[in-house]
Write a structure and sequence with these properties.
This protein is of the alpha/beta class and 908 residues long. Helices cover 69% and strands 6% of the residues. The relative contact order is 0.05.
Length: 908
């Protein structure tokens, strides 16, 4: 009794200490500290009571073992009257036996044979061992099991109340109820033990009265039998206590598991609140003032323009002044400060800290605990009822990957919004600068609406800026909301995971996932083999199809089955007219942005790193006195002149640059030499000598005799060629002259793609030039960027119309508004790229032609219509030859066409 009461008192004290520590942790810090205190200090009541019970049984057995040897082994007792009088509770054979005994005793009395007092021998010590070491021990074990059940149920109820959250932390009444139950057990334990001892004593006394009679034969209390029963009882007790120890471990692990999940939920919520507040501070304290100041400066600029227009001031001076303000105060100052502020806040590192902070609590989860499928833990459990599981594996199987996924998605969206803000701020300032420049250009052209053009552009830019900043703040809120919703959802999932059935379900899913992963690995290997073989099979099929298709067309033509007359598509015939109508709808700023002119500044230039590197290498080698003449080869409209303009600004030349463009019809040596002489003279190069310069040889001598060095840019050398007898002589002589004058002149030429390929075939033009730099095609994304970069300078909002055939499809109708717009945009640029193949000039023309509607702030871009080019494959041979010559010569004048085709204009 003392050991059991002591264990209960120690449990009550430790429970009070735990409550105190948890309450202190909650007062001093977040709720996760309370759960940590509970995990580390919560007393295992069942474990303590089991230890106290074992100690009590050990002391109890030792006391009895010391007491029993002093008891008499066998005593002689007189049988009481009850041994002769049948009782209603006696069995039938006992009642008959007692009647027989009564009759025999009466007969002996009448016969004066004596024997009125019958005696019986009682194995007193063995009976005492049987009752007090056996039956009393069993009753005490049942009492101990009852206490264990109460403690485990109370502990489970308390932990459930704490982890469910409807409590006041460790000050929940459940703690007091738990302590109260322990106190009541201690108070009632003495009376219970006295009651049990009294009941066993009464049973022992009753057994002594019957022991040694036919009612309770003495053989049942033999020494061997009593020893067997005592040992069996001890083994039974140890088995029961061992099972209760299993229950205690399972209960302790379940308590730890639930508290760890609650701590995980609490810590993630606390971390998110901390990071959310930090993110707000980063944005409001560092970025907010810059955005506000930028807007105020823009309003001041707009007021200055409007006031000047109202007062009749000289708009050229006002617009120039405000353009300088926009360039300096907005673009160079505020946008730079905004970029620096974003860099100083180190948002990538901040996002990494959020992710690592959310992952850290998962590492605190236990790697191995015990569980049981039993709903209640108030019963003894065998080892077979227990299974080990890993809370870490269980929780991270679903939850951690989801955190990583959601965090990654929201991180991308946040950085996209941040980049959009930076790009939007830069574009906003560029739009202001460009619209002020457009106003200046309109004023220079005598347009009275110059101030209106500039003012509308600035106002439109400001509205776009407000939308951009609003979207950024909305994206920031969406980022926090997405993480918060994810954590709330995970919190709910973690509460569900506290259920045993959920644990078993996820364990099965983990095993299933492992099996599926092995299956996917096998499929990946099989798919790899298929991918290796598929291109070969497809290539064979395509080659066979092309061969059959080619043979089919040849035989149809030979048999006269091909269509003779082809009607050219109306889309092609009306193209120029529709383009002109579309251009007239567009604002002046938009027309100016998409003017088909070579660029002279970096603003709209799309970098060509490979070509720039090759050109820089050519110039570097020329500086080392090596042969380094270069030619730029590309389709007409691909941006060759723009590339030359920007390259001349980036390459450190430090020498005079002479720029020439071969005009149409310059197909003779004399004309070309005259053009070169005029260009070099105008560029400040002295061609000394008295002899007239009439041939390339004369020009070569004069160039090689020059005292200084220079760079010569000659564009459109294909104009020197005419496809007649001797028509390549001019361009051939020119290239030889270029090779011969490499020492003093760094030659940079340009030529159309088809003409250069022809030159290379007929007289190996590539061997005369050291660097043949072919401008690579832009990708679809780059072409989109070229167009959208110009559009952003306008300040207008874009809306894309989808193809009419797609609008009626179910798949399109299921898309959200944003996804419809994005799909229409991607579809437009896909079709545009399929038509123009990165030809910038043609792409810009198509883009302008696609403008369907223009409102105050929005331009609607219609879907690309399918152009019918099928007539090309059915044109007559002489017409195909005409198209070929036009491509080769980059266009032909009528007189040149007469020379090439040797026909009159009427027959051509």
């Amino acid at each position: 009794m003392d050991a059991l009461s002591g264990g209960l008192r120690i449990l009550a004290e430790r429970l009070h200490e735990t409550e105190t520590k948890a309450a202190a942790a909650l007062r001093q810090g977040p709720a996760s500290g309370m759960f940590t205190a509970l995990i580390e200090h919560f007393p295992s009541g069942s474990e303590g009571i089991l230890l106290a019970g074992r100690e009590a049984f050990t002391r109890f057995d030792a006391a009895l073992d010391a007491f029993f040897p002093g008891l008499p082994g066998l005593i002689l007792e007189t049988q009481k009257e009850e041994r002769f009088s049948p009782a209603p509770s006696d069995a039938v054979f006992i009642r008959y036996g007692k009647r027989i005994k009564q009759a025999v005793r009466l007969l002996r009395k009448r016969m004066h044979l004596g024997g009125e007092k019958w005696t019986h021998k009682v194995p007193f010590r063995l009976a005492a061992v049987r009752f007090y070491k056996g039956k009393l021990s069993d009753r005490l074990l049942s009492f101990l099991e009852e206490i264990l059940g109460i403690l485990l149920e109370s502990e489970a109820a308390l932990i459930e109340q704490i982890t469910e959250g409807n409590n006041n932390g460790p000050e929940h009444p459940g703690f007091r109820e738990f302590s109260g139950k322990i106190t009541r057990i201690i108070q009632e334990a003495g009376g219970t033990l006295r009651r049990l001892t009294g009941e066993i004593t009464n049973d022992f006394q009753s057994a002594l009265d019957r022991l040694g009679t036919f009612e309770l034969p003495r053989r049942r209390y033999s020494a061997a039998g009593v020893q067997r029963q005592t040992l069996a009882g001890k083994r039974r007790r140890e088995k029961r206590l061992g099972r209760w120890e299993n229950t205690s471990r399972a209960a302790g692990d379940r308590r730890r598991y639930n508290l760890e999940l609650s701590r995980l939920t609490s810590e993630n919520g606390e971390l998110f609140d901390s990071f959310s507040a930090e993110l707000d501070n980063k944005i409001e304290d560092s970025l907010g003032p810059i955005l506000i100041r930028t807007r105020q400066k823009t309003l001041s600029l707009m007021d200055a323009v409007n006031a000047a227009a109202a007062n009749g001031e000289v708009m050229a001076d006002v617009l120039a002044e405000q353009r300088a303000r926009a360039q300096n105060d907005l673009l160079e100052e505020e946008v730079t400060r905004l970029a620096e502020a974003v860099a100083e806040q180190a948002f990538p590192l901040f996002m990494d800290r959020i992710l690592n902070g959310l992952k850290a609590p998962f590492e605190k989860l236990s790697r191995k605990l015990l569980m049981t499928t039993e709903k209640t833990l108030a019963i003894p459990l065998s080892a077979r009822d227990l299974e080990s599981f890993s809370p870490y594996d269980l929780v991270t199987f679903d939850t951690l990957p989801r955190i990583l996924k959601v965090m990654s998605e929201n991180r991308i969206l946040f950085f996209e919004s941040l980049q959009t803000l930076l790009a939007g701020a830069r574009d906003f300032c560029n739009v202001i600068v460009y619209n002020l420049e457009a106003g200046l250009a309109a004023h220079a052209d005598g347009d009275a609406a110059a101030a209106g053009i500039a003012g509308e552009g600035v106002e439109r830019a400001l509205r776009g800026f407000d939308e951009t900043t609003g979207r950024f703040r909305g994206s920031t809120d969406a980022f926090k909301t997405g993480i918060s919703d994810m954590l709330l959802d995970i919190s709910g999932q973690l509460r569900v995971l506290m259920g045993i059935h959920r644990i078993i379900e996820i364990r099965l899913r983990i095993q299933s996932a492992l099996v599926k992963e092995r299956g996917r690995e096998i499929r990946r290997k099989a798919a790899g083999l298929v991918r290796e073989l598929l291109p070969k099979v497809v290539s064979f099929i395509v080659a066979s199809a092309k061969k059959v298709s080619g043979s089919y067309r040849v035989y149809r033509k030979r048999l006269g089955l091909s269509a003779e007359k082809v009607i050219v598509s109306s889309h092609i015939a009306d193209f120029l007219a529709e383009t002109k109508i579309a251009l007239e709808k567009l604002p002046f700023v938009y027309q100016r942005l998409y003017a088909s002119l070579p660029l002279a500044e970096q603003r709209f230039f799309m970098e060509r790193p490979e070509e720039t590197t090759a050109l820089a290498a050519a110039f570097e080698n020329w500086g080392k006195r090596r042969f380094a003449a270069a030619v730029l080869v590309a389709e007409k409209g691909s941006g060759v002149t723009t590339f030359i303009n920007l390259s001349l600004k980036t390459i450190p030349l430090r020498i005079p640059v002479i720029r020439l463009e071969i005009p149409e019809g310059t197909t003779t040596e004399a004309e070309t030499v005259r053009l070169l002489c005029d260009g070099f003279t105008a560029g400040g190069m002295r061609l000394t000598g008295n002899k007239p310069i009439k041939t390339f040889e004369d020009f070569t001598d004069r160039i090689n005799a020059m005292p200084g060095r220079c760079m010569a840019v000659v564009e459109n050398i294909q104009q020197m060629f005419l496809r007649v007898i001797g028509g390549s002589g001019c361009v051939r002589g020119f290239l030889r002259m270029v090779s011969a004058t490499n020492g003093n002149v760094f030659w940079l030429l340009s030529c159309t793609l088809y003409a250069w390929e022809y030159f290379d075939k007929i007289f190996s033009a590539g061997d005369m030039i050291a660097y043949v730099i072919k401008l690579q095609r832009f990708s679809q994304k780059q072409l989109e960027d070229i167009i959208m970069l110009r559009h952003r300078m306008s300040g207008f909002t874009l809306r894309f119309e989808p193809p009419s055939a797609v609008v009626r499809t179910i798949r399109y109708r299921r898309l959200s508004k944003e996804k419809r717009e994005e799909w229409a945009k991607q579809e437009y640029f896909r079709q545009l790229y399929s038509y123009t193949r990165s030809n910038v000039r043609l792409s810009l023309l198509y883009w302008l032609r696609s403008a369907r509607d223009v409102t105050r702030d929005t331009i609607t871009i219609g879907a690309m219509e399918d152009l019918d080019f099928s007539f090309l494959s059915s044109l007559a041979g002489h017409k195909q030859f005409l198209l070929y010559e036009l491509l080769l010569h980059d266009g032909l004048r009528l007189t040149e066409a007469e020379s090439v085709f040797r026909q009159s204009p009427e027959t051509i």
